[in-house]
Design goal:
Blueprint (H helix, E strand, L loop, with lengths): L1 E6 L8 H12 L3 E6 L7 H6 L2 E5 L3 H8 L2 H7 L4 E5 L2 H4 L1 H6 L4 E5 L2 H17 L16 E2 L21 E3 L5 E7 L2 E3 L10 H4 L3 E3 L2 H13 L4 E4 L8 H14 L4 E5 L2 H6 L4 H6 L2 E9 L3 H7 L5 H14 L2 E6 L8 H13 L27 H6 L17 H20 L3 H15 L21 E2 L6
Parallel strand pairs: 1-2, 1-3, 3-4, 4-5, 5-6, 8-11, 11-12, 12-13, 13-14
Antiparallel strand pairs: 7-8, 7-15, 9-10
Helix pairs in contact: 1-7, 9-10, 15-18, 17-18
Length: about 475
Amino acid sequence: MNIVLLSTYELGRQPFGLASPAAWLRQCGAIVTCLDLSREPFREEPVREADLVAFFVPMHTATRLAAQLIEPVRRLNPRAHLCFYGLYAPVNESYLRELGVETILGGEFEEGLAHVVERLRSLRTSGNQEHGDALSLQPEPVISLARQQFVVPDRVGLLPLQQYAHLVLPGGEHRTVGYTEASRGCKHLCRHCPIVPVYNGAFRIVQRDVVLEDIRRQVAAGAQHITFGDPDFFNGIGHALAIVEALHHEHPQLTYDVTIKIEHLLRHAAHLRTLRETGCLFVTSAVESVDDAVLARLDKGHTRADFLAVVELFREAGLVLHPTFVPFTPWTTLESYVDLLEVIRERDLVENVAPIQLGIRLLIPAGSRLLELADIRELVEPFDRAALVYPWRHPDPLVDALCGEVQELVSTGDKLGRSRAKAFARIWQAARRAAGIPEEVLRPEPVLVARAAIPYLNEPWYC
């Protein structure tokens, strides 16, 4: 069996979502080609020869890009079985099946992919090459929450780590970054989170020995820093701490970063120093808003005061916090946006926040828990199948106009290589103008000096 695993985008990381199933499928005797189109051109030859083409769709952007490839792949190879797997596959099942996708796998997908290969091999052996009804031919569950026994990811055929996003350290030094996952899913049910419709409060671990061996091999391939892609590294804190302690013992010079909820950072504040002492350079946390009413609607599980408390805990622990936001929601006002910027400025977080985070607009994808809210149901337009979202317009057109202006400022700043401080200063002034704050009461333009102690990855985080 010839298999093509195809990724279109995963935040500049070498895709775990290709390397992990590649290991499973090669154990089944399949010939696997991995194509990461975020870093290499589309190659026709392996697609022409494939029995199965499987698209990895962990994110909204990745899914939209992958959907555009269905027609050219089908044109190159009409007999290939098409599969979409990953977080965004099951929530867009009906749309993808209409486009000709025959197998949809969400949640814990590796075992399902291995089963698809055996199913196709059996059909080929029996001489039955007819696809028939795609829906009835899929015995694998569309969403699997099975407790898998993972195998070590096989990164053979993927581009070198040096061609992916890298770590920028104080002083300008760059480090090669590897990527792994110690768990999937999440215990929490935040309304806007795309994980919830698939995992519904469940999370699953990748066995410790598998994670450590995966890192060991990436270090041998040149990794100097590891990003853990777990939705929340502290969902299983015993599992997480055992991994980083073993990691530090074996690779004392290796650094890493993780993503953890504000709620968990408060609950497990005693372990912040453990993170720092084992090589954690920074923690990403989805703060989303500093407006308590918005946080309640999103069911985030923390408050403005909680976030500010975590900021202080991190400074005491000598750790760096990278907060992320969804600043433009249906409940955002011009005044609340200015308030967010003031919090960032007053708490000296300008260099901690990637400018793109100040222009993010709330996505409402298929299956979103946001649709539980009456005001959202009244606001959204019919589902846009091409964009894979429910479109919405802000009740105040001035807020949408400001969002567009901020996004343009961020885009222009990226093209010109502007610093975070300069980008923030321009956004600051645009927001205050939009809010109609009289010139005479404007505070002096903030003196924004780049903090020398903020490490970051050179590919911003968005969906």
